[in-house]
């Protein structure tokens, strides 16, 4: 298999291309030019999930386990590097753009869509409402919080604190059996 674009901490967005020779365009931070690739955006996402020891379907299934984001599900391409991406459309939509959450600074409403302002100052216009993009960013922020909590505490955040405490206590009890008192 030929090498495919490697998603890094510099990857800000993957857009659909216009020809078979440039099926996708990649926007990287501090890069003046769009990079073009023959692979479709989803193929790049899928192959990079696999490079990071899971499939896209596996990563999505994990996100669904902790959230109710069944449509336009954000996905951690690399948990170790903190890279989370979200689709702007359904996966079957040829106009789907993949935005890398950690690079977004703000979203500005326009009459026929929105400008995404990235942290390096780059602007990307999409014909998507500010509300939809803001909702996707909120999902990514929550997902990032879940990931950080699992890494720090070994358990995901819980709506019910007593549920998390119960899991922690049952884990401790299983690890260190207590002898009955005489």
From TrEMBL:
GO terms for biological process: establishment of competence for transformation. InterPro entries: ComK (IPR010461). The gene is comK_1. It comes from the Bacteria. This is Competence transcription factor. It comes from Oceanobacillus oncorhynchi.
